[in-house]
């Protein structure tokens, strides 16, 4: 699944989920993609379920949720989806360095949708 996010600076960010995403993530960061996503789901699950919008409102996170949130994981999973869409991008630090600011609040809705798609199954 491919999602293209319009960034506030006028650029677009392509994000792609596939079976290769988990391997790209593990090869780059040394941790299991699905285990890290389950940890994120515990933090974001309730908020995403109640949202009517594709955009994620980080202000909806409680203090308790924030204590369990590692923002680096959000950057890492976003990088893995971006790398899966464009194999020419560099490592996480170089990739993030190309942005003057990285609008996680704009990107997060698409990232969460891609994560959900990877976890869902289809019955025939």
The largest pleated sheet is described as: 2 strands, antiparallel
Counted beta strands = 2
Order of helices and strands: EEHHHHHH
- Category from helices, strands and their pairing: mainly alpha
Average of per-residue pLDDT values = 82
Computed Rg: 14 Å
> Which stretches are poorly predicted, pLDDT < 50 over at least 5 residues?
none
Percent of residues in helices comes to 55-70%
What topology, given as strand order, has the largest sheet? 1-2
Proportion of residues in β-strands = 5-15%
Overall form: globular
Q: Number of helix segments?
A: 6
What is the rounded distance between the termini? 19 Å
Give an overview of the whole structure.
With 124 residues, this protein is mainly alpha-helical. Helices cover 57% and strands 8% of the residues. The chain has helices spanning 19-29, 33-50, 63-67, 71-85, 92-97, 104-119, and strands spanning 2-6, 12-16. A hairpin with a 5-residue loop joins strand 1 and strand 2 (12-16). The radius of gyration is 14 Å and the shape is globular.
Overview in brief:
It contains six helices and two strands; from the N terminus they run ββαααααα. By secondary structure, it is mainly α.
Q: What does the secondary structure layout of this molecule look like, with pairings?
A:
Elements: E1 2-6, E2 12-16, H1 19-29, H2 33-50, H3 63-67, H4 71-85, H5 92-97, H6 104-119
Antiparallel strand pairs: 1-2
Key terms:
124 residues, 6 helices, 57% helix, mainly alpha
């Amino acid at each position: 699944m491919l999602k293209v996010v319009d960034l506030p600076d006028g650029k677009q960010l392509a994000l792609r989920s596939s079976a290769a995403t988990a391997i790209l993530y593990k090869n780059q960061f040394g941790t299991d993609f699905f285990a890290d996503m389950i940890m994120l789901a515990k933090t974001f699950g309730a908020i995403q379920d109640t949202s009517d919008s594709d955009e994620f409102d980080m202000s909806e996170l409680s203090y308790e949720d924030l204590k369990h949130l590692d923002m680096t994981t959000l950057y890492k999973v976003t990088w893995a989806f971006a790398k899966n869409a464009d194999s020419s991008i560099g490592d996480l630090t170089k990739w993030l360095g190309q942005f003057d600011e990285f609008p996680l609040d704009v990107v997060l809705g698409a990232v969460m949708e891609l994560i959900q798609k990877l976890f869902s199954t289809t019955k025939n």
